[in-house]
Amino acid sequence: MKVEKEDIITIEGIEYAVIDKVLYEGTDYILTNKYEKEEPTETYIVYELIDDDVLLVTDKKVLEKLAPIFSKDVKKIIDEIIIQQKYDIN
Amino acid sequence: MNIDNLVVNYADKKLKEIRNSGFDINVYSNMMEELTGEREFEINGEEYKFVDGYKRDGDDNEYNYGINDNVIADVFIGIYENLNEEQQEEFLNEMLQHTDKNPYKVTEFFEKIKKEKEEQRRIDESSDTSSEDTENDSSGDEQEEENDLSDDTLESNPTPEPENEEKTDEEKTDDEKLSFEHDGPAIKAYKEETLSLEKKLEELLEQKSKIIPNDNEPEQIDNIDINKEIAEKLGLEVEITGEITDIDTKEKEIYEQKQLLKEEIENLNRLKRQYDNLKDEYITKYNVREFESFGLDTEMAAIARNIEIQIKNQESLINNIKSKIDSLEKTQNTFDINVKEDKLIDVYKIREICDKEISRANTILADIEKTKDEYIKEGKGIPFEFYKFEKELQNVIVNSKEALNNLFIRSNIRTTDEAFKSVLSSLYETNNVNNNIQKQMNENYNRNISNDKDDELNPDDKNNSELDNEIEKLKEEISKRKENEKLYYSCLEDIKTLKDAINGGLDPNSEAAKKIIERIDNKKMPLPEELKNELNDYLNMALARERKKIEKIEKNPKKTMRTYLALAAGLGIGGVLGFTLGPVGLAVSYGVVGLSKFIVSKLQKEARDRRINGKKVESIEEPSNKLKAAVQRLKEKALQHEDVLRDINWGLNGALIGLTVGSLTHHISNTIELQKTVHNPNPTPNPTPTNTANVAPTNNIPNVGEHVNGLEYGYRNSLDAAGHVNATHLNQAILNDGKTVIAGYRVGGQTLTNLPAGVTPDAVLLTDGTSTGYRAWAAVEDVVNAVGRSL
Q: Which residues on chain B are in Cβ contact (under 8 Å) with A63?
């Protein structure tokens, strides 16, 4: 099963909500927010997806590239939400 | 477990060591199958009971001898330490079963061991339990603990790693062979090599020294035979029994007898020669082929008979002299000396010295022999003192040997080598000895002394110095290797620290990581290549990020990130939300702050900028109790739909951190609106734009007056209003579309109708589209009341 946006994944017993997924230079990266007791936290973690595994991304250069991409995507999501809220629920 | 065999084997091993040192001891053990205590040892022909330390003589009388508790304990403890873990457990249990039989020290030792083992088991069990507890906590009841909003990227609940089957080295992959959990192949081999060198050193030391057993293994016998002088010089308090005779007188007598013996032997030989000559003469004279008797010559026969008688007499005389000498020699220098209990001597130190002295004495005796030959060649008589000196040396040898065989003395005088040396040197005093002899002997003595090391008298032995060199070299090498092992493990610790940090999020290319790597590189410089290379492999492993398994993927979860982001949207910050590179991974814009904190900071900024008719609005602070209570009532009374409640709860959790009343209200209001729309599937269709005045409100959303003088921009909904996003050019249509929640506004002079009860016109303010001065919402209570009523 592939990881997609909106999923909640469990790694080493901890849940992460997948906020965004991008393909960058041939590699899938996901932006996650760490959950604690089913609540979001202020911890955002970027993982590299490899099959059914993830690799923590700590490489500064990669993160610097990904940060604006994620930001743009998240803003889009929020804008979508806003619009949804305005006109429709679903 | 057969304890008996263990004791026997141990005793045998110890005996071998003792025997190798020159002692003559027979030890046997006759163990009962269970440790009931009748353990017997025979030492030097005397029997001793092991447990109670009594000596039994031939009549079965017991004398308190004192193979004491220490000795017994040492044996059992020695056995225990030589067993493997499994055997130790069994042995321990058996020993503790028989505490009534074993000496106190044994029991004490094994009870201590048992306690330590139990303590260790408790520690191991509790550390297992605590790791389980950590896992349970992570899925506990959410109401139990506060949300921890601190950045805990580096923390993770430990999941136990799947246990690997125990594989042999051949079966393991390269990765498995190299693991932080156990020694890598290079260090393993290195340590094994060190161990083998240590064993070799042990053998060399054993070879060099006549093994000196453990100082804690003294044995004791009642009586020792020791030269009186030596005993006194050694500082032993002795009680002498037996006959004491004057040594000099005895010596002189023995000497004289021996001189006499020599002469008589010479006489005998002379007589024998006479007899042979007579025989030859007879054979020649009478041409006899084989001599049988002097039958043919009576005169010769008579002479022969006479010589035969003389020979017989001479032989008898010689035997008598020999007997006399024997009896004189037997009674010299033997005393029964009972050593007082409180005097202790380092037995084995003495033995070592004795050995050396024996060796030295033998050397000097050889010299004496040579010198005596010279005297004889020159036809000179050898002075008595010479013989005395020789005798004394022989006594040293004899006594030393006797002491070595018999000397088990429990001593509290640590070492008496000084005293002993003084004894020996006093024996070497050469009063009245010919100067040349003395000089020669002194030369020998001094030559031996000059070869001494560590202030001990070492025999001049070439082989020993080669052995010493080898031993020294080996010691140095082992010490160096041990240092290397220490250094290796220290480097490995640093690597492990680095690994943990990287797994926790530290960038391997960061300055911090590079510093650690540099430190490790410098540290491992002195190590041999194979260890350095292995550490490099570990370092590469550490630098590589740890791949983690995705254990579960939940599709379409109840609470997704969208919900959370909806909160963000609802709070009007969607437009400014962004990610930036934080100290660890990504963080929300404005530094490493959470969404809620971001909101607070943003609104605080707004509050600072905001002016309402020149007045400052209330600052952002912790929501009042009033507010909180209102929210609570709202939740309990008004909202029945679970999702709404949950979502508001979400929002409220964040919102309650220092938001304005207004923002909160707006959020609640908006959420309610959302829900209301859900539960009202047939909302009023958009009315056609008409004149603004007197348009009936839809869904209880307050309308505004028709006139929108001065109104340039507004916001379609409260979210936008709070967030100053999506400013819209207002028109009546928008105002009346039934989906728009209008920011408060004041229309000059207009009548506002259908406002929520309690909302007064001055409670609403029309925004002029700038960021200054609007007051968005009515008081919360009013909203609550309104909402309550509307529902």
A: 581, 585-586
pLDDT of B745 over the 60 cut: no
Residues of A (48-77) whose Cβ lies below 8 Å from B: 50, 52-60, 63-64, 66-68, 70-71, 74-75, 77
In this prediction, residue B155 carries a pLDDT of 33
Do A71 and B577 make contact, defined as CB atoms within 8 angstroms?
Answer: yes
Contact B509 A59 (CB under 8 A): yes
Stated length of chain B: 791
Q: Give the whole-number percent of chain B exceeding pLDDT 70.
A: 31
Q: By the 8 A CB rule, do A5 and A19 touch?
A: yes
- The answer to whether B578 and B740 are in contact (CB under 8 A) is no
Instruction: Please report, rounded to a whole number, the percentage of residues in chain B having pLDDT higher than 90.
Output: 8
How far out from the chain centre does Cα B70 lie?
27
Instruction: State how far the Cα of B246 lies from the Cα of B709, in Å rounded to an integer.
Output: 146
The B residues from 665 to 684 touching A (CB cutoff 8 Å) are: 670, 674, 677-678
Residues A40/A20, Cβ–Cβ less than 8 Å: no
Cα–Cα distance for residue pair B307/B273, rounded to 1 Å: 10
d(CA B400, CA B351): 8
* Strand extents, DSSP E, B500-648: 547-554, 579-581, 586-588, 611-612, 615-616
Please work out, in degrees rounded to the nearest 5, the angle formed at the alpha carbon of residue B261 by the alpha carbons of B258 and B267.
Answer: 150
Q: Could you write out the DSSP letters of every residue in B394-452?
A: HHHHHHHHHHHHH-----SB---HHHHHHHHHHHT--TT--HHHHHHHHHHHHHHHHT-
State mean pLDDT over B182-208.
87
Give B421-430's long-range contacts (Cβ < 8 A, gap of 24+).
B421/B353, B421/B457, B422/B233, B423/B229, B423/B230, B423/B233, B423/B234, B424/B357, B424/B396, B426/B229, B426/B233, B427/B229, B427/B392, B427/B393, B427/B395, B427/B396, B428/B364, B428/B389, B428/B392, B428/B393, B430/B385, B430/B389
Q: Is B585 on the interface with A (CB under 8 A)?
A: yes
At residue B554, what is the residue type?
A: E
Task: Tell me the two tokens of residue B424.
Answer: 């020996």
Beta bridge partners of B580: B587
Cβ distance A82 to B725 less than 8 Å, yes or no, reads yes
- Residue the block writes with tokens 């044994």: B106
Residues making up chain A, counted from first to last: 90
Q: Calculate mean pLDDT across residues B160-180.
A: 51
Cβ-in-10-Å burial (0-12, 13-18, 19+) of B200 comes to middle
Q: Is the ipTM of this complex over 0.90?
A: no
For A3, phi then psi, to 5°, come to -85, 130
Tokens for B214, please give them: 């453990």
The label of the residue with tokens 């020290």 reads B105
> The whole model's pTM is what?
0.30
- The per-residue pLDDT for B723 is 44
Report the SS3 class of residue A15: strand
